[in-house]
Amino acid sequence: MSRLTDAHVTLAKEIIGRYPRPKSALVPLLHLAQEQDGYITRDAMVHIGQLVGVTSAEVYGTATFYEMFKFEPVGKYVVNICGTMSCALMGSEELMHHAEKRLGIKAGGTTADGMFTLEHAECQAACTEAPCLQVNYRYRYRLTPADLDQLIDDLSSERLTHEIPPHGTVAKVRQHIPPHLGVGAVEPELVTESPVWLDSKAAL
Amino acid sequence: MTSTYSHAPGFIAGDRPKIVTSRFEHADSHTLERFVATGGYLGLRAALSRPAQSVHDDVKSATVLGRGGAGFPAGVKWGLTPQGVWPRYLVVNGDESEPGTYKDRLLMERDPHQLIEGCLIACYAAGLSHCFLYVRGEMAVAQERIAEALNEAYAAGYVGKNILGSDFSLDIVLHWGAGAYVVGEETALIESLEGNRGMPRLKPPYFPAANGLYGQPTIVNNVETLANLPWLMTNGVDAYTAIGTKTSPGTRMVAVSGHVVRPGVFEIVNGTTTFRDLIYGEEFCGGIRGNNALKAFVPGGGSAPWFTSDQLDLPFEASQVGAAGSMLGSGAIIVMDETTDIPAAALTLTRFYAHESCGKCTPCREGVTWLERILSRVVDGKGTETDLAQLIEVGESICPGDFPHASNEALGLSAVPFPYKMTTICFVGPSAYVPVHSALTLFRSEFEARITKRTMINVTAVSVPA
Amino acid sequence: MSTTESNIEPASQLDPNVVSMTINGKAVLARKGEWIIAAADRTEDFIPRFCYHPRMESVGVCRQCLVEVEGPRGPMMVVSCMTPVAQGQVVRTDTDIVKRAQEGMIELLLANHPLDCPVCDKGGECPLQDQAFSHGPGESRYIEEKRHYEKPIPISGLVFLDRERCILCDRCTRFADEVAGDPLITFIHRGNNTQVMTFPDEPFASYFSGNTVQICPVGALTAEPYRFKARPWDLQQQESTCTTCSVGCRTVVQSSRNEILRYQGVDSDPVNWGWLCDRGRFNFQSTNSQNRLATPLIKSDDGLKPASWTAALDETARALRHAQPGSIAILGGARGTNEDAWAWAQLADVLGVEMRDAQLDDGLPAEIFGYPGATIDDACSAATVILLAPDLKEELPVLYLRLRGAAEKKKIRIIEIATHDSGLTRYAWKSIMHEPGNQVQTVQDVLSAPEIKEQLGRGRVVLVAGRSNLAELAHNTMAAVDSIVTTVAQVSVLPVLRRGNVRGALSLGLAPRASNDAAAILEAAANGKIDCLILLGADPLSDVPDADLARRGVAGARFIIAIDTFLTNSSAHADIVLPAAAYGEKDGTTTNLEGRVTDVVQSITPHATSRPDWMMAAELATLLGNDLGILTLQDIQARISQTVVGFDGLSVSVAVRKNGVLISVPPVSPLQVHHEAVTKRNSYEYRLVVARKLYDEAVATAMSQSLSALATGAGVYVHPLDLERIGAKDGSSVRISSTGRSVVLPVYASMSVTRGTAFAPFNQKGVDIRELLQATDGVTDVQIANIS
Predict the structure, then answer these.
(1) What backbone phi and psi angles, to 5 degrees, belong to B222?
(2) Which of B301, C137, C539, C609 would staple C568 via disulfide (CB 3.0–4.6 Å)?
């Protein structure tokens, strides 16, 4: 449905320019598309293929490999409850059952109002803080069912919008390399010499 | 003694030497201002004021071990690049996702400049002309902190053209993943960074140091490994090797999770701290919850064969743990107390690897899902004796021959040392068999109980909540 | 299993590139850099495999070829498809642990594989089936539910995909990406849910898609033309050479009950490496067509009527006997065998025919063969390849694959000099676009550029030369070729004329004499100077670029004798039509663009009463009282090898049946080329480029139902900015006119077309662009007006 907006195309070109080969920008650009639409549209994949010079099929192959990319609309808030060992030992299944009951959906489903998608997630690197979950990739630690209820209340009443952007946006801060400060990416074929600093006795 | 900080959830400082977590006490440790005020970028200056080769030599003589899992010395790894082939790249592995592991995310969120400084030192020393900092996709805050830090560092002249006015120039590019455990494997990480499906390449011939990103020599280093370098440069090799043991100098970050009184992330002295210290020590986890008995523990992340109380006095040191039938891996201990439903606990790990298998090679794609299905049936109380035999059969198709496990006095088992033979390309497939094999070897009766009695032992929760 | 294995045994143990090793205790010599599996393939110890293919990069994904290699810490289990041989290496393929691993892999591969072998096209020739028997555990212990997907889905008009059968070996996807350069199929999803798929609603539209079916080690990919047609054990097969174009790919022709059912590629090391293009692979359908000519036809008052061979040959002989001296002409011969061409040339000699041409004003003069010649291997191993040729992907697809592969692997650098983007443009080191007609100036500019000069000095240079534009004189190309050959040192020429046996026909007596080429012959016919025009498998009304000239020529010839497989546009105008045996229905040899002679083999009896061309020539000669002395094909081959300079190798029949024999080309004095500068283009006009696409109205394509729908159809393509200037929309109609003549065609925007030029594909269904072409025009400038 939607290709990348002009503003995102500008951003996409900046991102592509950071890599020695354009295809490396594929995953970052898919994030950009998901940030724009909340999920990855067919047209966005075609557009990204054109921007980095690969076929739509290649974009599709890469995109579907990764868990975070969604190919149909999901809730504004995607709640990922970890179920791997440390969290499981600390009661994550109970938490998941509670979430399913509270939201009235099964893991993998989206609420009718489009606010929540509930997912079973694998290890989120917060094992000491089990059981944990992420809402749009923002952590909540050591949750009890009551904590989960409170979280859903807060999200439903949009009390956490300052911290948790709608699904699609991951990091709210982007890297930006001002052209005059950056070295610039060079195709590997064009580099044949060792870096200059290796020749000197000391750089400083 | 065991101070904790609300801004660094899970981290327990303790009264121990600090190499990589020294700034965690400051709420603003991620800012350039705090970083510079606490000795930041002095390691970079120290490095740049010497020839690159001598910096490389220091890293080699300090024996900075890789903290990602394999434990290979970083300085040696840098030296494996083929002569005269340029350009060479640094890829930072910030795709922390091994079950039980929680340390790199803390280092990225709490001290991003320390990591950047580590990258700069590594690239300077090894002649790497472009750095890609690959951060796990699901870590939004880590990405933000690193993006902010990089923007600050570029503006202040620490990164980019002519760093600190020298002839050393380097771009560091922040790259996000998008959710795939296997991308933590270094060749899969490179595939992913090339915009491909993150599937591992076969080693050999794809040893990254010779044939990595874009086919060029590439060093892949873990976040924690690189975070050690600024301190090493500032304080010198002797100070570094004075901590820890000869084979395992310095410190290590370890996350202890599961059924302990005080789960947490600790920077411990390498090579000397024992598992008993970590699980029972007052300055660490303070014992098992509710004074329960220890049933088993995973010593080095989800891929590591399990230990029981027989192995508690082993130190956190790679060769001894390997000889005892497991591995240190990524510095992650998961503790199971006596209430743990062992088959169900094993299933959570096998399911993890089945979910995360990339599907590239046959044994992992087909075998791991098969393991998961059988195990799941057993956990549901619908398994048969044949199923238990079949778990081992499928496992042997993934890992033919002897499979490592710990010794156990009560069961009369002696240890089979690490590693194993494998039919897969990478460790994901064997890792799925690890919990199955460990659980069946050490706790076979629990599986048999499921089958013969056909009773349902709390099939919904993995353990009885304390 | 792979169709190729290098048969070169390493010469000796003293050779520095040879290592000695043992496989299961037996000594084996191997080449450095070779994989263990390749070395083992020369022994009796077969290592099972699925993903390994000798013509593609190894990926080591199926894990079936695991073996043990002795290492410093005991035996190591490694995949033999990605482990190089080494001096003193000790390999075991028969230990218990290896057997356990190999049996384990088979069991795992079969876990989700449906047991529908009885209804699977692959059954009986299936590597999975075969190796399950030879290396499998005998039974499956998998009691879980298998993966389910929708049963075969079409991923293109030619290929069906059954994902349940797929074992994800990465052969098809690797082929599409690595060999064909069309990564339109890919793995999607992950882990146990991984599947091969196209992008939603974008078909696997590759000219090479049929190869994926051939290399699929299970029945996951099937070709529409062969589905449910036969069982492998019912097929008879003959190795032969494809004559669809002049690359000369080696094939296996498979037939059952006197019907051709399938072509498969055979790995010929110097030529096609086992690959075929889809046109060559699937146009066997035309041989089986109901529209084939069955009997001779003789024109009567109410059209062409079936006749007996005796009557038709008598009538033909009578016409030839009564023709005025010098008024007989032969057009064509490039679609037959060497023997066909030679026999007709003999007949022509007997009749004193001066006017003959195997080409139809759509190639280059035969003098192109007089330059120092290059082979495909020469081109693929040169330092530099200069392309002054039509789009090889469209005209000579497997040559495109070879050159693309060499360029991708950075073995060669391609300098392309062309009028519009070709399939090789993205792989070219330099791609220089020029206006049609300006190639001589462009070549001179390019050759004097310092960077190019430096590159040309780096080693051997191969010039790939052919007719890239049918809307301008061949002369323009020849002048440019001449310019390159006289300027560049160490250059050799790979001529790329496209019709199957054009080189054989031109070399065996059907080359024009003096300046009596096809255009001159048709002009003579139009002027009433031809009593008897013999169309030897030629269809000038469809193939001669100047449509008006062809029409006038066919109309002006007093008597037309057509030898053909189908009633074509031209043979429909004939007075006598003689039905010819088609490819697969006759034995013989063919000569590819390199001058490589290989055999073509009869697999089925000729359709109805049709006969090989050479037989007709022999019979006609006898009827005319000039017995050629040939009763069999072997007679002809003996005569060719004794009498035709360069063809003495034809007698080496074993070689002709394998990689072929290169004819030695006698040096020919180069064509005297006087280049005349073409007029400058009026800026309101577009200079026309007309060239062939792979799929067009050529009879073998049009008569193959699976290919006929793939042609693009007539149209004209301009740069998007030119489209804007014309004021037309993509797909709308425009009037294209040139010197008083005009056609109306749909117009399309294309970034591949240079500004100021207009590209029109040749011989497509719809309005004929040839109406604008004149054989005498140096270039063709047209005006394009929006009329919608």
Answers:
(1) -75, 155
(2) C539
